[in-house]
From TrEMBL:
This is FAD-binding domain-containing protein. The lineage of its organism: Eukaryota, Fungi, Dikarya, Basidiomycota, Agaricomycotina. GO terms for molecular function: FAD binding; oxidoreductase activity, acting on paired donors, with incorporation or reduction of molecular oxygen, NAD(P)H as one donor, and incorporation of one atom of oxygen. Residues 10-175, 337-377 form the FAD-binding domain. Keywords: FAD, Flavoprotein, Oxidoreductase. Its cofactor is FAD. The keyword Oxidoreductase applies. Gene3D superfamilies: FAD/NAD(P)-binding domain (3.50.50.60).
Length: 451
């Protein structure tokens, strides 16, 4: 049950309290909008959000620093200095050194941290500023009224706001209620969203093992590892320092993120796979050093101990036609308001490269700044200076298209590595020995070229 009832009027209503919604709220406040003019709602109870994304790249850390939110996240996460791509036999194909970013940023690394922890830190900052998230409230309707948009909820409640920010994910209710075109495939990019049947179905899970893996996957220095074999990909990464307690799951043992693709010819994977399903893939597809199969790992077979969270999803890319919309009613009195999209409500793409939450947070920091500027410059006339919002939305739309194109390139790159006898495999192996090529990959992953 909700501890508080939300007000019925607001300047800004933010629907969704994930990373993009929370960041937008904090950015609005830091750019001068009074906290009492902002209402944030979410459809789920606190604590029901899951782990999902696990990395903050350099450009995102810079954006968070601009609104005073980087210190807690940066100190809680693990700093990944290198990322290694390995073949199925354990041989290294490419090792990317993120320290090559040092001339361009004060964050020459990737900060590995659970999305759940990112949300905890952002929510803590919001509360410090006097903000509050009202839960659980699910939007079911929206209509233009005098001086705003009236959003209705399942609990027979309504909130009227001049600005409605849709930060409620890929199945955004606000997106649908705004009569936008549905998220669709980006024009000018590949029509086949499942670029390879071996990587279009992916399982992610946060788990613990029955063995100490610190010597295999050290956290100081932190080296990420992505293994690629003929069946697909397999990722394993520490989520918390083995000597520290996890603040996400209240665990006293090391937690690891594993991720792997399930070829479509093996059928549909469970939506929330349990320990037996995960164990079978770790044993067959993961690195030999963590296999439970004595034939693959004769030294000391490793077994999963506990599954804290797991999910399955299909990879695809899509983007809304526009991120900004001025909504009016049929009569002069129903002058309505403005809706803007952010995060997965605006664009989705493959998780390869860990770009989704990063682009969403950067979008949200900028969105808070531009909406604050518009509020402060309009003198209660919402139709003034609309071009500033349109220009911002068009700019971020272009950034999203660029990001989608990049993740598609990375997906094709990964697919080419699944066949060690292909031309693409050996071409990449050669390119991986060229310093400029490695620096280019690091630069693209960091987001510094697509702020």
């Amino acid at each position: 049950m909700m501890s508080q009832q939300p007000p019925t009027q607001a300047k800004v209503l933010i629907v969704g309290a994930g990373p993009s919604g929370l960041t937008t709220a904090v950015s609005l406040i830091k750019h001068g909008i009074a906290v009492q003019d902002i209402v944030i709602i979410d459809s789920v109870l606190q604590g029901e959000n899951t782990s999902r994304a696990v990395v903050l790249h350099a450009a995102t850390l810079e954006a968070l620093e601009s609104i005073g939110c980087v210190d807690g996240l940066n100190s809680s996460g693990l700093h990944m200095q290198r990322m290694r791509l390995q073949g199925g036999n354990g041989s290294t194909i490419i090792t990317n050194d993120l320290s090559s970013l040092q001339p361009y940023t004060k964050f020459p690394y990737a900060c590995v941290i659970s999305q759940a922890h990112t949300e905890i830190e952002l929510h803590r900052e919001l509360e410090t500023l006097g903000g509050h998230v009202f839960r659980p409230l699910k939007a079911v309707g929206m209509k233009p009224v005098e001086n705003g948009l009236q959003v209705s909820f399942e609990a027979d409640q309504t909130i009227t706001a001049q600005y409605v920010i849709a930060a409620d994910g890929a199945r955004s209710v606000v997106h649908t209620l705004s009569r936008w075109y549905l998220l669709r495939r980006p024009d000018g990019l590949d029509k086949d969203e499942s670029t390879d049947p071996r990587t279009s179905q992916i399982i992610l899970a946060d788990v613990s093992f029955d063995s100490n893996l610190e010597h295999i996957f050290p956290t100081d220095p932190y080296v990420g590892s992505l293994s690629i074999c003929s069946d697909g990909i397999f990722l394993i990464a520490p989520l918390a320092h083995p000597k520290a307690k996890s603040t996400v799951y209240d665990a006293t043992e090391p937690i690891y993120r594993i991720g792997f693709s399930v070829p479509l010819d093996k059928g549909e994977a469970p939506s929330h796979p349990g320990i037996e399903v995960l164990q079978s893939y770790v044993g067959a597809q993961g690195p030999m050093v963590i296999s439970s199969d004595p034939s693959r790992n004769p030294g000391k077979p490793v077994h999963l101990k506990q599954v804290y969270w797991s999910t399955r999803f299909r990879t695809h890319s899509a983007i809304a036609d526009i991120f900004f919309k001025r909504i009016r009613g049929d009569t002069e009195e129903e002058n309505g308001g403005i809706v803007m999209l952010v995060g997965d409500a605006a664009h989705i793409h493959s998780p390869i490269g860990g770009q989704g939450m990063n682009l969403a947070i950067r979008d949200a920091v900028g969105l808070g700044a531009i909406v604050a500027k518009h509020i402060q410059s309009t003198d209660a006339n919402i139709n003034s200076n609309l071009q500033t919002l349109q220009d911002f939305a068009q700019e971020r739309h272009g950034k999203a298209l660029k990001q989608i194109a990049m993740t598609k390139r990375f997906t094709r790159l990964v697919s080419s590595l699944m066949n060690p006898w292909s031309i693409g495999y050996w071409a990449l192996y050669v390119l991986g020995n060229i310093p400029f090529f490695r620096r280019m990959l690091v630069w693209q992953l960091s987001g510094l070229g697509n702020r």
